[in-house]
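Re: [ENG-882] Designed sequences occasionally contain unexpected residues at chain ends

Forwarding the minimal case from QA. C-alpha coordinates:
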Protein backbone atom coordinates (compact mmCIF):
# COMPACT_ATOMS: atom_id res chain seq x y z
CA UNK A 1 0.00 0.00 0.00
CA UNK A 2 2.73 2.47 0.99
CA UNK A 3 4.80 1.64 -2.08
CA UNK A 4 1.79 2.18 -4.33
CA UNK A 5 1.06 5.60 -2.88
CA UNK A 6 4.72 6.62 -3.05
CA UNK A 7 4.59 5.70 -6.74
CA UNK A 8 1.32 7.60 -7.25
CA UNK A 9 2.84 10.64 -5.53
CA UNK A 10 5.79 10.52 -7.98
CA UNK A 11 8.43 9.76 -5.39
CA UNK A 12 11.03 9.88 -8.20
CA UNK A 13 10.74 13.68 -7.95
CA UNK A 14 11.63 13.76 -4.23
CA UNK A 15 15.40 14.25 -4.82
CA UNK A 16 14.70 17.78 -6.09
CA UNK A 17 13.78 18.72 -2.50
CA UNK A 18 15.49 15.97 -0.51
CA UNK A 19 18.97 17.02 -1.58
CA UNK A 20 18.45 20.73 -0.75
CA UNK A 21 17.09 19.67 2.65
CA UNK A 22 20.11 17.47 3.36
CA UNK A 23 22.44 20.23 2.16
CA UNK A 24 20.80 22.68 4.55
CA UNK A 25 21.33 20.29 7.46
CA UNK A 26 24.98 19.91 6.46
CA UNK A 27 25.35 23.71 6.26
CA UNK A 28 24.17 23.89 9.89
CA UNK A 29 26.99 21.64 11.12
CA UNK A 30 29.08 23.37 13.76
CA UNK A 31 26.41 25.95 14.54
CA UNK A 32 25.38 26.23 18.18
CA UNK A 33 22.01 24.59 18.77
CA UNK A 34 22.43 21.91 16.09
CA UNK A 35 20.04 19.00 16.69
CA UNK A 36 20.23 16.02 14.35
CA UNK A 37 16.84 14.61 15.38
CA UNK A 38 15.03 17.85 14.64
CA UNK A 39 16.98 18.04 11.39
CA UNK A 40 15.77 14.60 10.33
CA UNK A 41 12.20 15.52 11.22
CA UNK A 42 12.47 18.66 9.11
CA UNK A 43 13.81 16.72 6.13
CA UNK A 44 11.03 14.15 6.49
CA UNK A 45 8.44 16.93 6.73
CA UNK A 46 9.67 18.52 3.50
CA UNK A 47 9.44 15.19 1.65
CA UNK A 48 5.92 14.57 2.98
CA UNK A 49 4.76 18.04 1.87
CA UNK A 50 6.24 17.43 -1.57
CA UNK A 51 4.50 14.08 -1.99
CA UNK A 52 1.22 15.44 -0.67
CA UNK A 53 1.51 18.44 -2.99
CA UNK A 54 1.98 16.17 -6.01
CA UNK A 55 -1.20 14.26 -5.15
CA UNK A 56 -3.08 17.50 -4.48
CA UNK A 57 -2.07 18.77 -7.90
CA UNK A 58 -3.32 15.52 -9.45
CA UNK A 59 -6.63 15.90 -7.63
CA UNK A 60 -7.35 19.38 -8.97
CA UNK A 61 -6.03 18.56 -12.45
CA UNK A 62 -8.40 15.58 -12.54
CA UNK A 63 -11.28 17.80 -11.42
CA UNK A 64 -10.47 20.20 -14.28
CA UNK A 65 -10.11 17.30 -16.76
CA UNK A 66 -6.77 18.67 -17.99
CA UNK A 67 -5.67 15.29 -19.30
CA UNK A 68 -8.45 15.35 -21.90
CA UNK A 69 -6.78 18.32 -23.57
CA UNK A 70 -3.46 16.46 -23.66
CA UNK A 71 -4.98 13.30 -25.11
CA UNK A 72 -6.78 15.36 -27.76
CA UNK A 73 -3.56 17.02 -28.85
CA UNK A 74 -1.76 13.67 -28.91
CA UNK A 75 -4.43 12.34 -31.27
CA UNK A 76 -3.84 15.34 -33.51
CA UNK A 77 -0.16 14.43 -33.75
CA UNK A 78 1.12 17.02 -31.26
CA UNK A 79 3.64 16.29 -28.53
CA UNK A 80 1.88 16.18 -25.16
CA UNK A 81 2.88 14.53 -21.89
CA UNK A 82 0.07 12.10 -21.02
CA UNK A 83 1.42 10.21 -18.02
CA UNK A 84 -0.93 12.03 -15.64
CA UNK A 85 -2.68 10.38 -12.67
CA UNK A 86 -2.82 6.90 -14.30
CA UNK A 87 -4.03 5.45 -11.00
CA UNK A 88 -7.27 7.44 -11.38
CA UNK A 89 -7.70 6.71 -15.07
CA UNK A 90 -7.36 2.95 -14.69
CA UNK A 91 -9.89 2.82 -11.85
CA UNK A 92 -7.48 1.37 -9.29
CA UNK A 93 -7.96 4.40 -7.05
CA UNK A 94 -11.01 6.47 -6.19
CA UNK A 95 -11.13 10.19 -5.50
CA UNK A 96 -12.03 9.40 -1.90
CA UNK A 97 -8.89 7.28 -1.50
CA UNK A 98 -6.83 10.04 -3.10
CA UNK A 99 -8.19 12.65 -0.67
CA UNK A 100 -7.39 10.33 2.23
CA UNK A 101 -3.81 9.88 1.00
CA UNK A 102 -3.40 13.66 0.64
CA UNK A 103 -4.66 14.16 4.20
CA UNK A 104 -2.26 11.50 5.51
CA UNK A 105 0.80 13.01 3.82
CA UNK A 106 0.00 16.54 4.96
CA UNK A 107 -1.09 15.35 8.40
CA UNK A 108 2.22 13.59 8.99
CA UNK A 109 4.08 16.67 7.76
CA UNK A 110 2.12 18.80 10.21
CA UNK A 111 2.98 16.37 13.02
CA UNK A 112 6.69 16.71 12.19
CA UNK A 113 6.34 20.47 12.25
CA UNK A 114 4.52 20.49 15.57
CA UNK A 115 7.21 18.38 17.24
CA UNK A 116 9.93 20.70 15.93
CA UNK A 117 7.98 23.78 17.01
CA UNK A 118 7.57 22.47 20.55
CA UNK A 119 11.22 21.45 20.81
CA UNK A 120 12.28 24.88 19.50
CA UNK A 121 10.34 26.60 22.30
CA UNK A 122 7.43 27.65 20.10
CA UNK A 123 9.62 29.61 17.73
CA UNK A 124 7.33 31.93 15.73
CA UNK A 125 9.82 32.15 12.87
CA UNK A 126 8.99 28.52 12.09
CA UNK A 127 5.27 29.30 12.17
CA UNK A 128 5.65 32.15 9.68
CA UNK A 129 7.76 30.08 7.28
CA UNK A 130 5.40 27.09 7.50
CA UNK A 131 2.31 29.27 7.07
CA UNK A 132 3.67 30.96 3.94
CA UNK A 133 4.80 27.65 2.42
CA UNK A 134 1.53 25.91 3.30
CA UNK A 135 -0.62 28.69 1.83
CA UNK A 136 1.35 28.77 -1.42
CA UNK A 137 1.53 24.99 -1.73
CA UNK A 138 -2.23 24.55 -1.32
CA UNK A 139 -3.35 27.40 -3.56
CA UNK A 140 -0.85 26.49 -6.27
CA UNK A 141 -3.63 24.41 -7.83
CA UNK A 142 -6.60 24.84 -5.47
CA UNK A 143 -9.46 27.27 -6.11
CA UNK A 144 -10.24 30.04 -5.81
CA UNK A 145 -6.69 31.32 -6.34
CA UNK A 146 -5.26 28.52 -8.54
CA UNK A 147 -1.95 30.40 -8.70
CA UNK A 148 -0.48 27.90 -11.13
CA UNK A 149 -3.15 28.84 -13.67
CA UNK A 150 -2.30 32.54 -13.61
CA UNK A 151 1.42 32.61 -14.37
CA UNK A 152 2.49 32.38 -10.72
CA UNK A 153 3.06 28.63 -10.44
CA UNK A 154 6.79 28.76 -11.05
CA UNK A 155 7.26 31.60 -8.56
CA UNK A 156 5.16 29.76 -5.95
CA UNK A 157 7.15 26.53 -6.26
CA UNK A 158 10.44 28.45 -6.23
CA UNK A 159 9.51 30.22 -3.01
CA UNK A 160 8.14 27.10 -1.31
CA UNK A 161 11.01 24.79 -2.10
CA UNK A 162 13.75 27.40 -2.19
CA UNK A 163 13.90 30.10 0.51
CA UNK A 164 11.07 28.62 2.62
CA UNK A 165 12.58 25.13 2.53
CA UNK A 166 16.17 26.17 3.20
CA UNK A 167 15.37 28.78 5.86
CA UNK A 168 12.81 26.48 7.51
CA UNK A 169 15.08 23.45 7.66
CA UNK A 170 18.00 25.58 8.87
CA UNK A 171 15.91 27.16 11.63
CA UNK A 172 14.59 23.73 12.63
CA UNK A 173 18.06 22.21 12.67
CA UNK A 174 19.98 24.83 14.65
CA UNK A 175 17.59 27.69 15.44
CA UNK A 176 20.13 30.21 14.19
CA UNK A 177 18.67 31.86 11.11
CA UNK A 178 19.04 35.05 13.12
CA UNK A 179 20.84 35.59 16.41
CA UNK A 180 21.91 38.84 18.09
CA UNK A 181 25.50 37.58 18.13
CA UNK A 182 25.84 36.56 14.48
CA UNK A 183 23.06 38.55 12.83
CA UNK A 184 21.05 37.17 9.93
CA UNK A 185 22.41 34.13 8.06
CA UNK A 186 22.50 35.81 4.65
CA UNK A 187 24.43 32.95 3.08
CA UNK A 188 21.53 30.62 3.92
CA UNK A 189 18.99 32.94 2.31
CA UNK A 190 21.19 33.27 -0.78
CA UNK A 191 21.47 29.49 -0.92
CA UNK A 192 17.69 29.26 -0.65
CA UNK A 193 17.24 31.68 -3.54
CA UNK A 194 19.73 29.73 -5.67
CA UNK A 195 18.00 26.43 -5.02
CA UNK A 196 14.61 28.07 -5.50
CA UNK A 197 15.63 29.14 -8.98
CA UNK A 198 16.73 25.61 -9.84
CA UNK A 199 13.48 24.15 -8.52
CA UNK A 200 11.59 26.83 -10.45
CA UNK A 201 13.37 25.71 -13.59
CA UNK A 202 12.46 22.07 -12.96
CA UNK A 203 8.80 23.11 -13.12
CA UNK A 204 9.48 25.61 -15.90
CA UNK A 205 10.98 22.80 -17.99
CA UNK A 206 7.52 21.24 -17.95
CA UNK A 207 5.80 24.59 -18.55
CA UNK A 208 7.97 25.43 -21.55
CA UNK A 209 7.73 22.12 -23.39
CA UNK A 210 3.99 21.88 -22.63
CA UNK A 211 3.05 25.50 -23.19
CA UNK A 212 0.90 24.73 -26.23
CA UNK A 213 -1.04 22.16 -24.18
CA UNK A 214 -1.47 24.55 -21.26
CA UNK A 215 -2.58 27.33 -23.59
CA UNK A 216 -5.30 25.13 -25.10
CA UNK A 217 -6.44 24.07 -21.61
CA UNK A 218 -6.52 27.73 -20.44
CA UNK A 219 -3.74 27.16 -17.90
CA UNK A 220 -1.69 30.36 -18.00
CA UNK A 221 1.77 29.27 -16.94
CA UNK A 222 4.73 31.63 -17.10
CA UNK A 223 5.78 30.05 -20.39
CA UNK A 224 2.33 30.71 -21.87
CA UNK A 225 2.37 34.33 -20.70
CA UNK A 226 5.82 34.96 -22.16
CA UNK A 227 4.47 33.74 -25.53
CA UNK A 228 7.60 33.82 -27.69
CA UNK A 229 10.44 31.30 -27.75
CA UNK A 230 12.99 34.08 -27.27
CA UNK A 231 11.31 35.35 -24.10
CA UNK A 232 10.73 31.85 -22.77
CA UNK A 233 14.32 30.76 -23.34
CA UNK A 234 15.66 33.98 -21.81
CA UNK A 235 13.68 33.28 -18.64
CA UNK A 236 14.95 29.71 -18.67
CA UNK A 237 18.57 30.88 -18.90
CA UNK A 238 18.05 33.32 -16.00
CA UNK A 239 16.64 30.59 -13.75
CA UNK A 240 19.35 28.16 -14.82
CA UNK A 241 22.54 30.22 -14.56
CA UNK A 242 21.80 32.81 -11.85
CA UNK A 243 22.32 30.26 -9.00
CA UNK A 244 25.94 29.81 -10.11
CA UNK A 245 26.40 33.60 -10.13
CA UNK A 246 24.93 33.81 -6.62
CA UNK A 247 27.50 31.34 -5.29
CA UNK A 248 30.31 33.27 -6.97
CA UNK A 249 28.94 36.49 -5.45
CA UNK A 250 28.77 34.93 -1.98
CA UNK A 251 32.40 33.86 -2.28
CA UNK A 252 33.51 37.32 -3.46
CA UNK A 253 31.58 39.06 -0.67
CA UNK A 254 33.08 36.69 1.87
CA UNK A 255 29.90 34.94 3.01
CA UNK A 256 31.25 31.50 2.12
CA UNK A 257 34.58 29.75 1.44
CA UNK A 258 36.05 29.59 -2.06
CA UNK A 259 35.73 25.78 -1.96
CA UNK A 260 32.04 26.17 -2.82
CA UNK A 261 33.10 27.30 -6.29
CA UNK A 262 33.40 23.62 -7.17
CA UNK A 263 29.66 23.82 -7.94
CA UNK A 264 30.79 25.29 -11.26
CA UNK A 265 31.54 21.68 -12.23
CA UNK A 266 27.79 21.39 -12.89
CA UNK A 267 27.93 24.07 -15.58
CA UNK A 268 28.37 21.55 -18.46
CA UNK A 269 25.18 19.80 -17.36
CA UNK A 270 23.37 23.13 -17.16
CA UNK A 271 24.62 24.05 -20.61
CA UNK A 272 23.31 20.74 -21.98
CA UNK A 273 19.87 21.44 -20.53
CA UNK A 274 19.88 24.91 -22.10
CA UNK A 275 20.95 23.43 -25.43
CA UNK A 276 18.19 20.80 -25.24
CA UNK A 277 15.57 23.50 -24.59
CA UNK A 278 16.80 25.54 -27.56
CA UNK A 279 16.59 22.40 -29.72
CA UNK A 280 13.02 21.88 -28.53
CA UNK A 281 12.09 25.45 -29.45
CA UNK A 282 13.55 24.87 -32.92
CA UNK A 283 11.54 21.62 -33.17
CA UNK A 284 14.78 19.66 -33.54
CA UNK A 285 14.98 16.22 -31.94
CA UNK A 286 17.38 15.25 -29.18
CA UNK A 287 18.24 11.50 -29.10
CA UNK A 288 16.41 9.92 -26.18
CA UNK A 289 17.09 6.17 -26.53
CA UNK A 290 20.29 6.20 -24.47
CA UNK A 291 20.74 9.39 -22.40
CA UNK A 292 24.42 10.24 -21.74
CA UNK A 293 25.53 8.86 -18.37
CA UNK A 294 27.14 12.15 -17.35
CA UNK A 295 23.70 13.79 -17.29
CA UNK A 296 22.96 11.78 -14.16
CA UNK A 297 20.40 9.10 -13.28
CA UNK A 298 17.15 8.86 -15.23
CA UNK A 299 14.97 6.52 -13.21
CA UNK A 300 13.48 3.47 -14.96
CA UNK A 301 14.26 4.91 -18.38
CA UNK A 302 13.55 1.64 -20.16
CA UNK A 303 10.00 1.64 -18.76
CA UNK A 304 9.13 5.17 -19.91
CA UNK A 305 6.94 5.39 -23.00
CA UNK A 306 9.01 6.67 -25.96
CA UNK A 307 6.48 9.41 -26.71
CA UNK A 308 7.01 10.90 -23.22
CA UNK A 309 10.80 10.81 -23.26
CA UNK A 310 11.17 14.15 -25.06
CA UNK A 311 9.98 15.85 -21.87
CA UNK A 312 11.28 13.53 -19.16
CA UNK A 313 14.86 13.52 -20.46
CA UNK A 314 15.00 17.29 -20.09
CA UNK A 315 13.18 17.15 -16.74
CA UNK A 316 15.56 14.55 -15.30
CA UNK A 317 18.60 16.46 -16.56
CA UNK A 318 17.37 19.66 -14.89
CA UNK A 319 16.57 17.78 -11.68
CA UNK A 320 20.08 16.34 -11.73
CA UNK A 321 21.63 19.80 -12.06
CA UNK A 322 19.91 20.72 -8.82
CA UNK A 323 20.93 17.46 -7.15
CA UNK A 324 24.55 17.73 -8.29
CA UNK A 325 24.76 21.37 -7.18
CA UNK A 326 23.54 20.44 -3.70
CA UNK A 327 25.82 17.40 -3.47
CA UNK A 328 28.94 19.41 -4.33
CA UNK A 329 27.98 22.13 -1.85
CA UNK A 330 27.47 19.49 0.85
CA UNK A 331 30.83 17.85 0.13
CA UNK A 332 32.57 21.24 0.31
CA UNK A 333 30.93 22.03 3.66
CA UNK A 334 31.72 18.59 5.12
CA UNK A 335 35.34 18.88 4.02
CA UNK A 336 35.70 22.32 5.58
CA UNK A 337 33.96 21.17 8.76
CA UNK A 338 36.23 18.13 9.16
CA UNK A 339 39.31 20.27 8.51
CA UNK A 340 38.16 22.71 11.19
CA UNK A 341 37.88 19.84 13.70
CA UNK A 342 41.30 18.37 13.01
CA UNK A 343 42.94 21.79 12.67
Amino acid sequence: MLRRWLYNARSFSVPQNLMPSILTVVMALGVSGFNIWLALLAVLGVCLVHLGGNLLDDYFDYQDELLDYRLGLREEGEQAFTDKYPYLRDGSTTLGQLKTAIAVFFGLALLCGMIIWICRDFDMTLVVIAAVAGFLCYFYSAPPLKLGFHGLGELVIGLCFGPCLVCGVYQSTCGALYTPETGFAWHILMLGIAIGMFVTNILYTHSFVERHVDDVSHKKTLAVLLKTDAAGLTAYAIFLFTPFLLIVACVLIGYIHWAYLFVLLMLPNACWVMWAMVKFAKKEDVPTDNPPKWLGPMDNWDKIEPENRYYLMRWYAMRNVNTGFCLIMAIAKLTLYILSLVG
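QA comment: On inspection the terminal residues look reasonable. DSSP finds 14 helices and two strands in the chain. Proposing we downgrade this to a documentation issue.
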